[in-house]
Structures are given as structure tokens and as C-alpha cells.
Amino acid sequence: MNRTALFRLLVLAAACFHTLHSFGAEPVRRPNIVILLADDSGWGDYSFNGNTNLKTPHIDSIGRAGASLDRFYVCSVCAPTRAEFLTGRYHPRGGVRGVSTGQERLNLDEKTIADAFKAAGYATGAFGKWHNGSQWPYHPNARGFDEYYGFTSGHWGEYFDPPLEHNGKMVRGKGFIADDFTDHALQFIERNQAKPFFCYVPFNTPHSPWAVPEKFWQAFKDQPIALRGQDGEKETLAETRCALAMVANLDWNVGRVLKRLDELKLADSTIVIYFSDNGPNSWRWNGGMKGRKGSADEGGVRSTFFIRWPGGGIQAGTVVREIAGAIDLLPTLSALAGVKRVGDKPLDGQNLSPLLLGKQQRGWPSRMIFSHQNGNISARSQQYRYDNSSALFDMTADPGQTKDIAAAKPEVAATFAAAVAAWRKDVLGRDATSALTVKGKAKSLGLLPDDRPFPVGYAEFPVTPLPARDGVAQGGIKRSAPAPNCSYFVNWKSVDDKMTWDIAVNTTGHYDVTLYYTAAESGATVELGFNGSKLAGKVAPAWNPALYENQDTIPRPPAESKMKEFRPLHLGNIRLEKGRGLLTLRALEIPGQSVMDVRQVMLTLKP
Questions:
Q1: What is the rounded (10 degree) CA torsion for 339, 71, 235, 52?
Q2: pLDDT at 232
Q3: Residue 556's CB: how many other CB atoms inside 10 A?
Q4: In 40-79, where do the E strands start and end?
Q5: Active-site option among 58, 75, 91, 131
Q6: What's 95-118 look like in SS3?
Q7: Which of the residues in the chain have pLDDT under 70?
Q8: Looking at 58, 75, 78, 139, which residue is catalytic?
Q9: What is the pLDDT of residue 448?
Q10: Is 131 tagged catalytic?
């Protein structure tokens, strides 16, 4: 190109820019992101996947208008899947080893997908079940989310007008919990419609307790269940019906989100994703796959996955048959939106955008995806699954995992065994024979003690909740039910009893202390102590409400606590010095039969 032609080209480009600027044209806007995550919903809970027991037209429409990932893998329980979605890394790398008592926390040196999108100028919001840490800086507001509304625990015991939090402030929700989360997500979308937004809606249903609005229950309570679970004798039909009703409610809420995007003319410019965090939480139809929630078999870790982006090149009806997983979402969404990730730790996930956009017709690299639960490891390739007992299954010929072919395919089994051993050493940091003895009992990998204290005292987020699930009961004190999440401490009757929290105070200062309690009698004197600092106060007034009896559609499992209304008891102010130690709550005097039940201690750093 000669100089004259180049000059003319530059003049033309400048004129075009001037014209666009004059007419108010804006640069191409990055796509909005909406991520809808179900809790304990199995692959088989959707009509898209062949379940005739219900219809899920709104959820199905995401897959029909965009792409479905035919073999998409998550973890076998809730918190690990959330961590893998947030980081693009296998959950043990980020410190997530369980679902309660602090093991669900995502290490503070991990950067999240929300960090990346916030750094790129997105408005970021999360509305629902967080489950990767409660105290700052584990809190979602510290992990890239401008706004957070929901609960940070593993599961919640109240589904109607529930106690929740909004950016650290305790609030009372309105109506059914999934509807309430959707209401707040819609408000966030409306407020931020003029700029790119990243909206994460981690629902907490159909996780138990079994509760759903009456209109949804009426549609299922007497319905025949045509498709039954693979282990039919284990299936409880009342639970199946309630789970289906809860999924139908999710479908209604997803429809509300899709409708609002249409009304705001944002549908074409918004990537919408729907998936679940693990296999089904009861024995119900799941496509004949082996296992359910808690299992590293196919039925425990395979999730439905739908994604649409009408204006971005994902063609309607696309089916991606290559295996994929929650670890792939961070690199994939970052690539689709042109957002640079934050942090430099190596990812385990792959960018799936070439598959979604139809740019990868052949030659996709083979891979294995690993599932880990309490030391049990399963590995999946495109054709095979290798389970924790070293059994090998051809998932194309035998999707129900009924025939172990390890002896018939020794070379394939050996390849998997070597890959699992390498993964175990790389991700867990131990070889296959490592174990630790704790209190005389050998603990398998994944059950090792968690030595991280609970952080307290950050000026940027002065309120620190210390719920019963994070505490340790000593003496005669017990939990209200075996499951720590959403439990509270009961049976406090002796001055020898106490409850403790292992905390690390970040800022020396004065802290306001509030206990959330119920008490059949008033007058007991209690003391809160930490590293020599002490604060005493009276339990008053008596507050002894009945347990809720009208929250559940069908009776909740015995492992889950029945809930009641807890009230705040302001104990006073205490000075805490920076450092680690046990925050201890004990009784000095008990004039009656008991002290109180305790759901939470709240510490607020005073300015």
C-alpha cells in the first residue's frame, strides 16, 4: 500500500469514528452473565432429559435455545462444586474439604470468577446459598461480589420468611426462599441493566428440608410416579413428589428471570447458564445411573448443563458430547466475555468456547475429569469411569456401571490407576497410602483436621457471625440435630459445660457481643472469654418459642434441626487483643434447670 492510499484509509477511519461518535454510538458491550445453580437436583429431574414425571419448560428452553453439555461433571456434594465453579480449580487445591464446621471455606489466596468480572467493570451480585465461608474475608462480599443476599451456610432450616443476610446485615426474607432469591436477583438485573452484570443465583432447592409452596405441592402430592429410581425399594415416593414440586418451582423462577431479560431487551446480550451442584438427594429416577448425592459414581456427579447466548454465536440445539465440568466454567466464561482472569494459579479447567461456538469440529484433546469425596477418587474419560475400588466401566456400553471390565482391559485400568495416583499426589499432596491417626482412629484423605481458625475483626466488614455449626460443644451440651449446618446448641445445664470457637482476631479493639438465643428460664449468668478478656451478663428475658410445625411439606429428616425463632441478647462489650485463641462461652450461675439454647454469637468491631 502506497502512502496516498494509506492516508486516504486513515482519513476514512477517522471520519467513520467521528460519525459514530456524533450519533452516540457506544463500543461493543461485553455480555451479561446469569448463572442459575440448583441444589441437590439430579440429572434426571428435567423433562429435557426424559423425565415424564414433571415438565420443566423454562429450564429446558435454555438448552433448546442454546447448547446442552451431554456429559457435564460436578462434585458429589455442594460446597466443592461451588468452589470449582468459582476458581476453575479442583476443590482440594482451594482448601474446601467438606460442607460444614469450616471445611467448606475457600482459601483466601484463591481468586474467583467474580473477582475477574468485577475487575473488568461488571456489576457483580450473588443471591442464595454461598457455602464457601461465612466470616470476612471468606464472605462473598470479599470474594468479588458487590452485593450478596442469602445465607452462607451449607443448608438452611427455614424456607418461608427465613432469616437471611444482606451484605452482612441480618434481614428477614419474604415468602418462599427460592422465590425471594429470584426477586432480589431480578432487582439487581434491573438496577444494572445499563452496564454489564454478573448475576449468580445459587438456589438452595430441592435440598431438604422438604418444603415447597402449596400450589406446587398440590400439583404433585397425589400424582402417580411413572419413572422410578434404579433402586426402587429405596425410593420414598413422598420425597420424590416433593423434590419434583421443588424443581417445578425452580422452573417457574427460571422462567421469571428469562421473561425479565426479554422485557429489558437483554436476552440476546446475556449468557444464561443452568446446572446443579451434585446428584439427586434422594433415590429417584436419574436415567439409570449408579449413585446419588455423596457418591463419586456417575449418578452422583453428572449434572444437566444448559447455556444460551442468542446474540453471541451459540447456535440453538447445539449438543456438546465431549466431557466437561464445573472446573471449565471460569476459563470458558472469561473467554466468551473477553475478561482477563485475576490470579496466576494454574487452572484445572479448559476453555470450552470453541465447542460451544462450533469452531472445534474435530481434534478436541482427550482428558480425564476427577471426582473426589472424603478421600474417594473416581476418574472419568470420554469412554470410561474408574471408581475408587479400582473397578473400570465402559460408560458407552454400560452407562449403569454394572460390569467391571478392569480384568478384561488391564492396560486401560493401569492407565487410570496411574492417573489417579498422580492426581492424588498433585492435588491432595499425599500418596495413596498416606493416612493420619486422630484420636486413635485412622482418617482417610479428605477427613484430615482443618486447622484454620475463624477470622474476626475487619474494619471493612466489622460484623462477624460465629454460628453454632462452627463451634464445638463440650460437657453435656449437644447439637439440636446431627447435621451441623443450621443447628444450634441445646442441653446446657451445668457450669462445667461450655462451647468454644477457634478464632483469630485481626484487629485489637472493643467488640459488641450479641447472642441469638432461646431460654425457658431467665436469670442464668454467662461469661464470654478470650485470651484473658472476659464479659459476663444475664440471660433475660426468658424466651421459649415453640418449634415451627408448619414450615415443612413433608416431615424433615431426623438429621436436620427443627427450627424456632431466636432473639438477640445483647451481652455487652469486650476488648479483644489481636491473636488466636478459643472464644469460650460458659455459665457462672444457673438458678434454674438450664441456661439457654444458642444459635449464634455475633461480634461487631466498634469504630
A1: 90
A2: 77
A3: 18
A4: 67-69, 72-73
A5: 131
A6: CCCCCCCCCCCCCCCCCCHHHHHH
A7: 1-28, 361, 430-448
A8: 78
A9: 64
A10: yes
Report the CATH number at residue 206: 3.40.720.10
Looking at the structure, do residues 478 and 413 belong to the same domain, yes or no?
Answer: no
Output the CA angle 40-189-110, nearest 5 degrees.
55
Q: What is the pLDDT of residue 450?
A: 87
3 CB-near residues (< 8 Å, 6+ apart): none
521 in the same domain as 402: no
Do both 434 and 481 map to the same domain?
Answer: no
Q: Which residues pair with 124 in a beta bridge?
A: 198
Query: Cα–Cα distances in Å, from 573 out to 528, 601, 607?
Result: 10, 13, 13
Looking at residue 430, what is its pLDDT? Answer: 62
* Burial of residue 517, with CB atoms counted within 10 A of its CB: 0-12 exposed, 13-18 middle, 19 or more buried: buried
Please give the Cα distance from 242 to 223 (Å, whole number): 11
pLDDT for 71 equals 98
Which residues, at least 6 apart from 566, have a Cβ–Cβ distance to it below 8 Å? 163, 488, 516, 517, 518, 597, 599, 600
With contact defined as beta carbons under 8 Å apart, do 518 and 501 qualify?
A: no
pLDDT of residue 439: 37
Residue 65 confidence (pLDDT): 98
Is 573 found in the same domain as 484?
yes
- Among residues 523, 509, 527, which one has the least CA distance to residue 584? 527
Query: Residue 455: phi, psi to the nearest 5?
Result: -75, 145
Query: Does residue 431 share a domain with residue 498?
Result: no
Q: Answer yes or no: is 367 within a domain.
A: no
Number of structural domains in the chain: 3
Cα gap 594→491, rounded to integer Å: 7
Cα(328)–Cα(73) distance, integer angstroms: 10
Q: Are residues 425 and 504 in the same domain?
A: no
Find the CATH number of the domain harbouring 509: 2.60.120.260
Query: Residue 242 catalytic?
Result: no
Range of the domain at 432: 375-443
Q: 433 and 568 share a domain?
A: no
